[in-house]
């Protein structure tokens, strides 16, 4: 059975034309099929509503503009968001940190490295005064020669997962688990914290409003696509309208 939307066949050439645009998808062919089907659903809806445009993309944009209504974000909503995520809107936070890096190499596979790192972490939990000694002995980072010291770090200077863990640690706290990043496995300690301050709400209000508007738009658009897909007669493929790149 071929692929059709409300009795209109989706030609193989349409899917082939879409395929290059989905080259980075986990399953490019599947995503190309879904995109072609969803596009047909949207164009048929534009036909039904008499929505015009210079090309298919413009017709779909005009359909969204008419049918997907998103309320404006008010100041109270922005303020609640600002107050609920204080760490996101801080400036000037610094942490003096040190770590021990266990780098994954062909000679040191991940599981073997993890076993060694777990043993070192357990030793440091029992005898924290050995951090500098063990960093010099085991760390694959140049900081190992400095006892693992990374100096003072501001938010955003490290890869996100390192940053997120480091700024949750209290002064002097040794992370109770290994941290895995693209560089390998880390034992992390925050030595000294310098607290910054909240950025004033007025300075980030527009940024927050834009972010909340995008989130509202995405939710409304996903709901709209689900409604359209749910009432369409789609043959030959199961389609989840919310998974399309059209809604990104």
TrEMBL record:
Enzyme class, spelled out: isomerase
This enzyme's EC code(s): 5.2.1.8
A Pfam family assignment: Rotamase
UniProt xrefs under InterPro entries: PPIase_dom_sf, PPIase_PpiC, PPIase_PpiC_CS, PrsA_foldase, Trigger_fact/SurA_dom_sf
Enzymatic reactions: [protein]-peptidylproline (omega=180) = [protein]-peptidylproline (omega=0)
PROSITE patterns to which the protein is assigned, alphabetical: PPIC_PPIASE_1, PPIC_PPIASE_2
Membrane-traversing stretches: none
Domain PpiC intervals: 92-192
Keywords on record: Isomerase, Rotamase
Molecular-function GO term, any one: peptidyl-prolyl cis-trans isomerase activity
Family label: Belongs to the PpiC/parvulin rotamase family.
Family annotation (PANTHER family): PEPTIDYL-PROLYL CIS-TRANS ISOMERASE HP_0175-RELATED (PTHR47245:SF2), PEPTIDYLPROLYL ISOMERASE (PTHR47245)
Protein name: peptidylprolyl isomerase
Source organism of the structure: Rugamonas rivuli
Lineage, opening ranks: Bacteria, Pseudomonadati, Pseudomonadota, Betaproteobacteria, Burkholderiales
